[in-house]
Design brief:
globular; binds zinc ion
């Protein structure tokens, strides 16, 4: 027997799940899902079947013809959780497991009404990537196993449920005051793309195949911000081939959602921090949409090959940005990515094995390994391949790659022979082994230049020497240009310099969180007290890890702000997602004194 994924008990000698049927009863009072998961094995099977679980209470297991299935839960392993070993009687085609989740299941965040926009109803959302589906249901929790699924979800009347699936009707629930929503996902997906959200939700159509869901208070703003999504889908189809998932709907979550977006098929989950009111942050939607091809159609086999998901998707996102907004905007997007890449490499150290694209994650928690490296180093490799063979040939390659591997999950070592067969010699030419198996950034990394970028960085880097943008320059900047300027400013400034920036760039009141947080990182890191109230406001409201990590890190620089950070965290902690909480605890753990 062999385990194929360091993060799963899934065993190569055992049957694979072919289809999943889920019945979930959403209990807001106890903050648990009471569930039945029916795993269809296709062929008659017998003997051991190992599933992943974490913090699940297993009630019973039986075959489809009603025979009891013996099972044993293994010891708790810190990263993997507990192996559920079923002993299938001969001829088992289906096994039904009755179970219950724990109130602190990592995949599930239960929000009290006051943590929502409307403040009247509770809210539940899931986040299964990377290996948290096992806290929501017993399953083969590895991207190697893909299943279509059907789900019946019972929720309080008056609330709405959405899933990474198509809606398939509703009926009165099993108890008064409940309704059961039915979902059908005909396409096979890996467990990390299973997704559920329940709350007071409203929807607005954006096109014949795209709709945005959000709390009623937010849905109009969301519909305005994402109005361009149909044009984006069409541009993506021109670049990467037909959209295969039928619908592209989006859900805007409450502010504690820990990521910018999550590419749950048919229902992208998005942070409300994208609602900048100026449509400037929709590149996150371009990213999640691009995953419909790279990631959701062609999927990394395990988290050790995460760059195949994210490197290709960042590259695809930038191609979409170029198609929609031109090459100047794309160069700025690459520059913003470069900043994130540099910070991730600095955080791990340039010689850290976590800076490799093809990682070795045995014994490593994928959430600990998470960084911008698979995204931005990966995208630079894909872009280097594109530049080396030329765009036309590379686009043909990408179409062939998607066609060959669609609805499968692949490793780096399966990608390489395909690359060699389709584009002979190019791997050696770019030194792909250094990119994949070497640490740090290779010297032949592509550099993306633009006039605006040169001007902005020169102006920012001259700040210490007295250079200042003119009022005309400032007025002419779009939000991305403003962000680039801030990103290239020194990290520690005098109170006078902070005051000048805030007065001339009107930074502290901004609603665009990219600009706002970049500014607060500089100002808080400079111990500039006039922003402390705004820092408290952002950290108490927003749970997006991209913002929490640098902001809490900046507060660590001075004794006064360290104390402020600890105090804010103590108050805000209960409202944070478990993933965000872990990130902040690790940042605070690095404070001295
Ligand atoms: Zn992504």
């Amino acid at each position: 027997m062999t385990r194929l994924d360091p993060h799963s008990y899934c065993d190569s000698d055992q049957p694979r799940t072919r289809r999943l049927d889920l019945a979930l009863d959403v209990d807001f009072a106890r903050q648990v899902l009471v569930g039945r998961a029916t795993l269809d094995l296709g062929d008659p099977s017998s003997g051991p079947l190992d599933l992943d679980t974490k913090d699940l209470a297993i009630r019973s297991a039986r075959t489809d013809d009603g025979r009891a299935v013996r099972f044993v839960l293994g010891d708790e392993e810190p990263i993997l959780g507990r192996r559920l070993r079923l002993d299938l009687p001969a001829g088992t085609r289906q096994v039904e497991i009755a179970y219950e989740t724990a109130p602190d299941a990592v995949a599930l965040q239960w929000l009290a009404p006051e943590q929502t926009e409307g403040k009247r109803h509770p809210f539940l959302f899931s986040q299964c990537q990377s290996i948290h589906a096992r806290t929501m249901l017993p399953c083969q929790d590895t991207p190697l196993v893909r299943v279509p699924y059907r789900a019946e979800v019972t929720i309080p009347e008056g609330l709405a449920a959405v899933m990474s699936a198509g809606p398939s009707g509703q009926r009165a629930g099993p108890r008064p005051g409940t309704r059961t929503w039915v979902f059908e996902m005909p396409q096979a997906i890996p467990s990390y793309l299973l997704a559920l959200a329940v709350g007071d939700l409203a929807a607005k159509d954006l096109s014949h195949r795209a709709r945005v869901w959000a709390e009623p208070e937010t849905v109009a703003a969301a519909a305005w911000e994402f109005a361009g999504v149909e044009a984006m889908i069409q541009a993506a189809e021109r670049l990467f081939g037909p959209y295969e998932w039928d619908r592209y709907d989006m859900l805007v979550l409450p502010p504690s959602f820990p990521y910018g977006g999550m590419e749950n098929p048919r229902m992208t989950f998005l942070t409300p921090t994208l609602l900048a009111g100026d449509r400037s942050l929709v590149d996150v939607v371009a990213h999640e949409l691009a995953h419909s091809w790279t990631g959701n159609l062609v999927t990394n086999a395990t988290m050790e090959h995460f760059w195949l998901n994210e490197g290709f998707t960042v590259w695809a996102e930038r191609r979409l940005v170029e198609a929609l907004h031109g090459s100047e905007a794309t160069a700025l997007a690459w520059a913003i990515g470069q900043k994130a890449l540099d910070e991730s490499v600095a955080r791990f150290g340039a010689d850290s094995p976590l800076t490799k694209l093809r990682t070795d994650l045995a014994g490593v928690d994928p959430d600990e390994a998470f960084s911008s490296i698979p995204y931005e180093k990966g995208a630079r490799l894909v872009s280097l391949l594109e530049q080396t063979v030329g765009r036309e040939r590379f686009d043909r390659f990408v179409h062939a790659y998607i066609a060959r591997f669609r609805f499968t999950s692949i490793t780096t070592e399966e990608f390489l022979p395909f690359l060699e067969a389709e584009l002979p010699g190019v791997a050696a030419k770019v030194g792909i082994r250094d990119w994949l198996y070497g640490v740090g950034m290779p010297a032949n990394a592509p550099v993306f230049r633009s006039d605006a970028l040169t001007t902005l960085t020169a102006l920012a880097e001259g700040f210490a020497g007295g250079a200042r943008p003119s009022p005309e320059q400032i007025t002419a900047w779009n939000p991305t240009q403003m962000l680039i300027y801030l990103q290239h400013l020194p990290r520690a400034l005098s109170a006078g310099d902070c005051a000048w920036l805030d007065a001339n760039l009107a930074l502290t009141p901004r609603g665009n969180h990219e600009i706002l947080v970049e500014w607060l990182v500089i100002a808080a890191g400079s111990d500039y007290a006039p922003v402390f109230a705004r820092v408290r406001d952002v950290l108490s409201r927003v749970g997006r890890m991209k913002y929490l990590r640098p902001l809490y890190a900046a507060l660590g620089r001075q004794p006064r702000t360290r104390a402020l950070a600890r105090e804010i965290f103590a108050g805000a902690r209960p409202g944070y997602h478990a993933l965000s909480r872990r990130v902040i605890e690790s940042v605070l753990g690095k404070y001295d004194g």
